[in-house]
Records
---
Amino acid sequence: MGYDATTIRTSKYREHRRMTARTVLLATSNAGKLRDFAGAAAAFGITIANIPNFSSLPEVVEDGATFEENARKKAESYSVAVPGELVLADDSGLEIDALGGAPGVRSARYAADDPHAAECSTVDEANNAKVLRELKGVPEQKRSARFVCVLAAARDGQTVHTFRGSAEGIILDAPRGKNGFGYDPLFYFPQIDKTFAELSAEEKAQYSHRGKAFRAFLSWCRVADDQNL
Ligand code: IMP
């Protein structure tokens, strides 16, 4: 098979892009999320770093009606602070069918304004306690739920692409497991007969909504590199 000069130049350029780590800036102040994402990205030759001086940037209010709206809003706003760079932001939460999709986009602050919340020492415990109260008496077959994560990639104030991942499970009537965070101890994942709080970080990334969305993003990066985007 013969190659002309343009083909050789293009393939050398692609090879160069493949060999040169792409850097993606993550819009988060959560060190745990940065660690999770950076670990998974390294195998793809992608470096994940925090947006420089992230804590000094004006906070973006997460008032969207959907995970996608919030993720896009964060990625677009923060990308303006780092011209030309690809910025990734995520929004995630738990949807419980018996509660009409709640806590949904309010997952992080579900127990706010709840008079019972003051009895609990941490936000996660208060949120979990509220879910258990609201599901009291609901039988197992009606306790279906899913974690959802939407990632938005933006550059110069414009969303380039969004990626969605979800994990289907059942809400238990008591917490189980010590790992993870948030609603993990209540979220039973039938596929492996464990709650998310009974998984190591690596195991959780394999099954979780965040892991799935992030793998979709990494595959997209690979295709974008091949097409020189
Ligand atoms: P955010 O994506 O940081 O806004 O998180 C929203 C909230 O959803 C968290 O504070 C948790 O309460 C819940 N959440 C999102 N992902 C997970 C997860 O993987 N495990 C447990 N809770 C989660």
Note: The beta strands are 22-26, 46-50, 87-96, 144-155, 158-171, 187-189, 194-195.
---
Amino acid sequence: MKAIGTAKRQKEPPGSMKFFIDTADIAEIRDLAETGLVDGITTNPSLIAKSGRDFFEVLKEICDVVPGPVSAEVTATDFAGMLREGNTLAKLADNIAVKVPLTVDGLKTCKALSDDGIKVNVTLCFSAAQAILAAKAGAAFISPFVGRLDDTGADGLQLIAEIVEIYNAYPDFHTEVLVASVRHVGHVIESAKMGADVATLPPAVLRAMYKHPLTDKGLADFLADWAKTGQTILSDGKEARRSA
Ligand code: E4P
């Protein structure tokens, strides 16, 4: 008999934490894709509105730039409407993940699309109970919104911990935990410690992850000392002779 509270991890941990970028700004996406660290993109109706672009046009462009999953959200609220929109969005590109809200009709749509082999990202998740339903509906991704929970005085990261624990307890739950509504680097670090599969980052958060004042100071010091030596690494083709 399994002792309560000592359930062993039954699934392999994810190979790596994936980074999606939470934007529909194609210039930002192109720029960040060059880092080689971008595994996918999430959009929502607000981000599409912010881009000022045509929905279908911008999605196709994003799907061309980033080969990983690109979430495109339905805007109908009834099952039939979401299903039709989801099927339309899924035809845009092979890497589209259809995003549906965590409602009864949204999860019915999730089940129907997932059964047809379409990746579904269930969004607007604010409780562990909702995350269980999404996993049972076959979601490829569950998107718990940490920042918006924090805004209410609740603990967004606690929700990530609960969902990771629950999903790890069931080998047949294949839904990836996609940490959404990320507001700062601390959200990424704490989610990574918990083994969350994906974090979707506003561009500024990914850029902030590179930064440390001691890196800047250390580099400035190294370069100042190097300048004093009067040497260069690449000059007059000497590097070719040295490596010969
Ligand atoms: C991602 O899929 C969500 O749409 C997004 O992370 C929401 O973030 P926000 O709370 O900053 O709007």
Note: The pocket of erythose-4-phosphate is lined by residues 22, 42, 44, 123, 143, 145, 147-148, 180-181, 200 (CB under 6 Å).
